[in-house]
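Support reply, case 0932

Customer input (verbatim):
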Amino acid sequence: MCKQAKLKVGIAVLGTVGKAVAKAIDNGIPGVSLTAISARDEQKSADWLATLQRPPKNMSFEEMALACDVIIECAPAAILNDIAIPVLKAGKILIVLSCGALLSRPDLIDLAKEHGAHIHVPTGALLGLDAVIAAAEGSINSVTMVTRKPVEGLLGAPYLADRGINIENATEAIRIFKGTAREAAVGFPANLNVAVALSLAGVGPDKTQLEIWADPELTRNTHRIIVESDAAHLEMCIENIPTENPKTGRITAQSVVAMLRKMGAPLRIGT
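Our regenerated output:
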């Protein structure tokens, strides 16, 4: 039997999550090789890449789309379009972490369909995503999510800036948002991809209800989710430990690594 060729992986860009995924691939994931990264500061990235056993090449988004089979978007939501279009036109696999940006760009899904490409959204910080996807095969009556985050993890959100809401000196928990996942994706583009992933798995971004609290006593990003369906009552609570970037949990990178490992595995667990 012929040995299956390794999937060539590219990472755009080399931030906190990108570096963690790059290290994991470099340490060895069956069926996967790190072929390229994209970083604007070439010298800084070169110094970091030199610490890897098999340093990949630094490429533009367009070059990476042609050279790789799978491209992982680990970038600010504002540049998802720049990363996604070359990948989708090349008919490749795009793993999207900034899934909130997909809500305003449904044309990217159409582009993937047109060129035979695939967009994957990892589980990320969300517990029970497989169960929500399964429940959606029947009838889901309601999905609600309450997110509580340390204050520093919410600073700089457009929703707060637009409304002049100051949470920097908060001494107690403050509810700063109540609305839909779609509204949250616009107001908190760096914070609530987990809510968008939940909405895409379940009843959609306009029916998924969300509250966001800034809590100065917390050190972890917490999410409580309740799903009522004709198949099951789901109630989930997650406490994610942040990385050095307070907006991102450690499990986000691990979720991407798990997805890559699953792609090349002879046994795959979960929906």
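We compared this against your earlier run and they match. Two observations from our side: Residues 147 and 212 are 5 Å apart (CA to CA). The radius of gyration is 19 Å. Please reopen the case if you see a mismatch on your end.
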